[in-house]
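Need residues for this backbone.
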């Protein structure tokens, strides 16, 4: 869900630049007679531990083991994509961390499928002005799983950007990233070289804890090895995801939604999905 490399590059620059600026500041408390040092946060207050899970469920018309695609040929097995991230707050806005990824196939019973882990540096306020905010992070993946080694994937790099603007109860946003893949001498064939992703979205707060959500996977471009030019890319079908987000507690939220492919909209091609986000620290 991204338009071009320029957007991702700006996200990378913003993270690194803001990291240096914000890390240089220290808070102090002053009175009319003396200056007292600020209270230093405990180490535990600087640590973070979070979970993000995405369930890709069955068709609305056929509760079988698959999750539908735009057409029957695009169907795949139901899966749960999981990410556990441990981090350290360099400043209240800047975080460095490591993420561990794995998939589960609940209808297949094959256990866990490990995905490549990554390191990241993020800035939750890379740019902030009133109701406008830019979150940015840079992720560095290591090709350590058997699947990555089999296709010669050494590493991947992905700058992310999340732009939001608040208008009363309404938040409109744009989530985007570029991902570039690095291979060894075996990495020829049909492996992806880079991908571009852009997803506009909106949330409308119904109550303090419940919001109506809309997410659109608008651009999902991939360029692969082959005789075609560097800019030749294929785009996955657009899908739309209306849903409801419920903040069960300040640290746990769930977001059930319906995934719809407008090109071939039907009960068969539409499916159930669920996002779960939780923070332990």
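Answer:
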């Amino acid at each position: 869900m991204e338009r071009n490399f320029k957007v991702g590059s700006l996200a990378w620059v913003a993270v690194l630049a803001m990291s240096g600026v914000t890390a240089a500041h220290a808070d102090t408390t002053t009175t009319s007679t003396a200056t007292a040092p600020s209270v230093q946060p405990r180490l535990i207050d600087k640590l973070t531990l979070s979970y993000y899970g995405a369930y890709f469920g069955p068709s609305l018309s056929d509760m079988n083991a698959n999750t539908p695609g735009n057409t029957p040929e695009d169907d795949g097995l139901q899966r749960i994509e999981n990410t556990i991230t441990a981090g350290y707050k360099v400043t209240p806005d800047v975080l460095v961390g490591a993420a561990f990824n794995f998939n589960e196939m609940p209808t297949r019973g094959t256990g866990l499928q490990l995905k490549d882990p990554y390191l990241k540096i993020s800035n939750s306020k890379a740019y902030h002005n009133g109701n406008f905010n830019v979150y940015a992070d840079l992720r560095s993946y290591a090709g350590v799983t058997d699947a990555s080694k089999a296709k010669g994937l050494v590493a991947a790099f992905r700058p992310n950007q999340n732009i939001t603007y608040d208008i009363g109860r309404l938040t409109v946003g744009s989530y985007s990233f570029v991902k570039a893949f690095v291979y060894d001498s075996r990495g020829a064939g049909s492996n992806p070289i880079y991908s571009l992703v852009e997803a506009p979205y909106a949330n409308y707060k119904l109550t303090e804890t419940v919001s109506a959500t809309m997410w659109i996977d608008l651009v999902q471009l991939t360029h692969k090895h082959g005789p075609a030019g560097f800019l030749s890319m294929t785009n996955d079908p657009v899908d739309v995801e209306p849903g409801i987000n419920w903040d069960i507690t300040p640290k746990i939220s769930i977001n059930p939604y319906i995934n719809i492919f407008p090109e071939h909209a039907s009960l068969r091609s539409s499916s159930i999905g669920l996002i779960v986000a939780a923070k332990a620290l």
